[in-house]
Amino acid sequence: MDFNKIQANAGEPGAMPQQAPADWDPQAPMPPMPPPPSEGQFPNGTAPQYGTAPQYGNAPQYGFAPYGQAPGPYGYDPYGQFPQFPATMPGSVRAAQVISFIFGGLGLALTVLAGVIAGAGAAGAMCFGYLFPMILGVVALGFRNGSGGTRTTALALASIEMVIGLGGVGAKQPPGLLGLIASLVIVILLAQSGSAAWFKRPR
């Protein structure tokens, strides 16, 4: 109870005089302050500093992957928040593009050579065997900026060429075994998850 305030208010007009409690002694000494807690009462033997909140355990860390580290497989984020896409063309897409260029360029060169040497009939037969690889070589030009439709078209052309190559092996017609193997490799490369993520990336 603040007796100084009581005495100050007592001088105001209309204020009722108030008396201190009978057991209050203004000459009595102040009670002693409690001793500070010892270090053994705190974890790790250290008392918390004034103005700082106590720490309990290790707080879980949330957020993104540390700078300079890969966020995870293509198309996924380790925290399940945002999908991640490759920033550069994956090796599988690059390999499929190179094989498509070589396969299509070889078919074009053989078609022209057959026409020069054996006439239009031989050139037509050669062109039929390498028609889809030549189209695939043109489609492969769009692998860098192409969308999912580019990948689907390339897979369809390579699959058709696999069938033609398989038939050419039995009939001993071009492209034969070369067309079968090259088309199979292109299908395997473009079917990988990294290749799919490249063509699905936002533009």
Question: What does this protein look like?
Answer:
By secondary structure, the protein is mostly helical. The chain is 50% helix and 0% strand. It is built from 7 helices and no strands. The longest helix has 28 residues. The radius of gyration is 42 Å and the shape is rod-shaped. The model has no long low-confidence stretch (mean pLDDT 75).
- Percent of residues in helices comes to 40-55%
Number of helices: 7
Broad shape: rod-shaped
Fraction of residues in β-strands: under 5%
- Roughly what is the average pLDDT, rounded to an integer? 75
Uncertain runs: none
Largest sheet: none
Q: Calculate Rg over CA atoms.
A: 42 Å
Distance between the termini: 74 Å
Could you give the count of β-strands?
0
The succession of helices and strands, N to C, reads HHHHHHH
Task: Give me the secondary-structure category.
Answer: mainly alpha
What's a quick, concise take on this entry?
By secondary structure, the chain is an all-alpha fold. The chain is built from seven helices and no strands.
Topology:
Blueprint: H1 3-10, H2 91-118, H3 120-129, H4 131-139, H5 148-171, H6 176-190, H7 193-200
Name the descriptors.
203 residues; mainly alpha; 0% strand
